[in-house]
Design goal:
The complex is a heterodimer of chains A (271) and B (300). Chain A is built from ten helices and ten strands. The longest helix of chain A has 18 residues. The relative contact order of chain A is 0.16. Chain A has 271 residues and is α/β, with parallel strands linked by helices. Chain A has a domain of 175 residues: Rossmann fold (3-Layer(aba) Sandwich). Chain B is mainly alpha-helical and 300 residues long. Chain B has a domain of 197 residues: MetI-like fold, CATH 1.10.3720. Chain B has eleven helices and no strands. In chain B, helix 2 crosses helix 4. Chain B is flat, with a radius of gyration of 24 Å. Chain B starts with 16 loop residues before the first helix and ends in an 8-residue tail after the last helix. Classes of the chains: A alpha/beta (271), B mainly alpha (300). Chains A and B meet through helix 2, strand 6, helix 3, helix 5 and helix 6 of A and helix 8 and helix 9 of B. Chain B: This is ABC transporter permease.
Chain lengths: 271, 300
């Protein structure tokens, strides 16, 4: 069974202001895709293309205005109240801003323990489970007692990942999860995510505006623009034979190591 | 999976609360002074029967001069006498009980109500928010003193009713402030994360929203103690506060103002106490706010 099946998803936001004629804005329009367990769908596109809205609708953080979302065969858009709360452990999210996604008033360990509480792990087991989870994301147990402002961005993102794993999800949504990190740390986190996927068979929805990150991470690629998917296919095909002009633009924008130096030299030769 | 990591240097965990409180107090002398003052004040109020040289309600013929004016400070009356021949120091000590208890209780009640209403309205939104905030608007649109007088006219003047009436008026401001804080707070990623984990509404409010409101609540609560004491004074002046012979600071000021040219101590004694108390509450509140914030840099 597919981990995620999204069909005809639509998200509509209300424009600010109240009145008889409520203006609306369609952020996501008729988006469909599937993700198999252990696979990664990379979602790319410019700012405002609706990538994050897809993620938030899948997570039921915003209400989709149409379409269906199946997680492990369960229709998520129809779930309400307590049922939705219990189901949330099957889908988890790693957020963009490692400086904002952990509660600054709780230690790293307590942030993870909140997830354990949500998963119904009994209190006496919290310490040992937290240690296990920190170990899985490559952090020493001593980090449990540190506050988020006392650790670095990459370490915070590891804690975020540990928190998401704590409830045992099938689907992990990474919304620009490495965009705020510098390049060397980014590579470490990407490798960690790949290792965890191999171990647990997690399905990833990996959102990024950075095509080189997606080339590394994704099995399939979907390109969004103006709330719609304009190109969708296996990663190798999309990079080798981009069909949509917008996809070609995105791929052309990937910086190539040494390209700038070469170009400058040719410019000098011309002179 | 073994990524290179710097090993944590030393133990970054914060020392215990008591120890931290003591360390920061030693560096912050205005806060230390305020807390000493508040402790002394509380002791004075509790031990009033032991400390007071006279019963607060007794009238003394030798408290008045031959022309009927009250005698000044000194001798039998350390802070002078009032126009009824009662000892000002004794009334001040007993008045501290009334003023402090009314100020703290009324304001405590108002704070609890305001935080609950603001938190629930801001977090849940929708109809709950509309109903709660319109009730808040309605209460805020009443003229405060007139509303108090009307309520007390119905319920009858007593210290207990004064507490309830002040609380009923004062929760509204905090409810609005808390709601607006929650509105921006609930969009923060860690609150969204708490929701996606499937935590209950109550737990999200308690563990992920409330701690971030504490600094603001402390500041408003300490300011509120001061205004509650002052409202009580106004009500006493209008004859709907603490029933008359029992002393409260506000009542003493209001009674003393007619005599301030011949007996300024009637204003100064309770006035200075009121100012010092209000100041001490505010400074202690600032200190407590900094202490409770783990991200605040430790002042060296």
């Amino acid at each position: 069974m597919s981990a995620v099946v999204i069909n005809g998803l639509a998200v509509t936001y209300k424009r600010p202001g109240r009145g008889l004629r409520q203006e609306t804005f369609k952020a996501v329009d008729d988006v469909s895709f599937t993700i198999e367990p252990g696979r990664t769908l990379g979602l790319a596109g410019e700012s405002g293309s609706g990538k994050s809205s897809v993620a938030r609708a899948l997570m039921r953080v915003v209400e989709p205005s149409g379409g269906s979302v199946l997680i492990g065969g369960q229709e998520v858009t129809k779930l309400r109240g307590g049922d939705l709360r219990k189901f949330r452990r099957h889908m988890q999210m790693v957020f963009q801003d490692p400086y904002d996604s952990l509660n600054p008033r709780l230690t790293a360990g307590d942030n993870i323990a909140e997830a354990l509480t949500a998963a119904g792990v009994s209190r006496p087991d919290h310490t040992s489970r937290t240690r296990e989870l920190l170990d899985r994301v490559g952090l020493p147990a001593a980090f449990a007692r540190r506050y988020p402002h006392q650790i670095s961005g990459g370490q915070r993102q590891r804690v975020s990942i540990a928190r998401a794993l704590a409830v045992g999800p099938q689907v992990l949504v990474c919304d620009e999860a490495v965009s705020a990190l510098d390049v060397s740390v980014r590579a470490q986190i990407l490798n960690l995510l790949k290792d965890l996927q191999d171990a647990d068979g997690l399905a990833y929805l990996f959102i990024s505006h950075d095509m080189s990150t997606l080339r590394f991470m994704a099995d399939d690629i979907a390109i969004m623009r103006g709330g719609r998917i304009v190109e969708h296919g296996p990663s190798a095909d999309v990079f080798a034979r981009p069909e949509h002009p917008y996809t070609r633009e995105l791929i052309a924008a990937i910086p190539e190591p040494g390209a700038g130096r070469r170009r400058r030299r040719t410019a000098e030769e011309v002179r | 999976m073994t990524a290179p990591l710097e090993i944590p240097q030393g133990d970054p965990a914060l020392p215990g609360f008591g120890l931290r409180a003591w360390r920061s107090l030693r560096k912050d002398w205005p806060a230390l002074l305020s807390i000493v003052l508040l402790v002394l004040l509380a002791l004075a109020a509790i031990l009033a029967p032991l400390l007071a040289p006279h019963p607060p309600l007794a009238t003394y013929p030798d408290g008045l001069q031959a022309n009927g004016a009250p005698v000044g400070p000194g001798g039998d009356f350390p802070l002078g006498a009032d126009p009824n021949g009662r000892d000002v120091l004794s009334r001040l000590l007993y008045g501290a009980r009334v003023s402090l208890v009314i100020g703290i209780l009324a304001n405590g009640l108002a704070t609890v109500m305001g935080v609950l209403v603001g938190l629930v309205a801001g977090y849940l939104g929708g109809w709950t928010e509309t109903v709660l905030m319109r009730i808040t608007d309605v209460i805020m649109s009443f003229p405060i003193l007139l509303f108090c007088i009307a309520l007390i006219a119905v319920t009858g003047p007593s210290a207990k009713n004064v507490v309830f009436v002040i609380a009923l008026i004062y929760w509204t401001a905090l409810a609005r402030i808390v709601r607006s804080l929650v509105l921006s707070l609930k969009e923060r990623e860690f609150v969204v994360a708490a929701r996606t984990l499937g935590l209950s509404h109550w737990r999200i409010m308690r563990k992920h929203l409330f701690p971030h409101l504490v600094p603001t609540i402390i500041v408003y609560a300490t300011l509120g103690v001061a205004s509650s004491i002052l409202i009580e004074a106004s009500l006493s002046f209008l004859g709907v506060g603490v029933p008359v012979p029992d002393p409260s600071w506000g009542q003493m000021i209001e009674q003393g103002k007619d005599y301030f040219q011949i007996a300024p101590w009637l204003l100064f004694a309770p006035g200075v106490c009121l100012i010092l108390t209000v100041l001490a509450f505010n400074l202690a509140g600032d200190w407590l706010r900094d202490l409770l914030d783990p991200t605040a840099p430790e002042r060296r």
